[in-house]
Amino acid sequence: MTLTARARIARLRREVLAANLAVVEHGLVVATFGNVSGLDRELGLIAIKPSGVDYADLTALSMVVVDMDGKKVEGDLHPSSDTRTHARLYREFPDIGGIVHTHSRHATAWAQARRPLPCFGTTHADYFHGEIPCTAVISDAQIGMDYEEQTAVQIVEAFRTIDYHDMPAVLVASHGPFTWGRDAAEAGYHAWMLEFAAEMAATTVALNPRIRAVKQTLLDKHFLRKHGKNAYYGQQGNARGTVPGANARGTVPGGTHG
After folding, report:
1. Mean pLDDT in residue range 88-103
2. Residues labelled as active-site residues
3. Residue 92 is part of which domain span?
């Protein structure tokens, strides 16, 4: 492996470590639940959190390097049990470079209820272009196959008519949320925004059980002013933002009306 490749792997491990620690900082993790990965597409290598290791014990070298099929290439620890889910999603969604899976309280509650997450207002619309889908319940046959890869198959099936660029999140029925982005930091930011939207939606339904989704024109306006072809929100052309501390790009998370 060349020195340049080594340096890139080292950088990827640092970025993935930072994103793992950031999701903890933002209250998205309990115990050792959850995992973050990042991909260097040119190298075809993924760095991912090791399985069952306490977040407080993680270092950059703890991040396990695997190939695009989820096979370990480098590292002393076993990779996350969800590695094959991540690897399949990277293969299926060619423009993503980071994935986060958590069992955050509110997003997981929607997944356990087997309900898609409706878009009730502009805060949700700033990051997700409409209702966040919930997969079908995985079948017994799929559970008996390669369960983790079949989890990704369930996600891909839910996106047959949905653009994964405009909807960087999914709820896996009876399981929990996955989010993605251009890198591990952005995927973590989307996980944070998903949890915030899920909590607000639950409160909204409690206050008004008859509430309906935000009207399409308002949804489109808020999403497209940040992420559309003629987007005008923000200063750096990076409206999705990053989780603070996740990397050193200096980008600031975007708010709803700033």
Report:
1. 98
2. 126, 233
3. 3-227
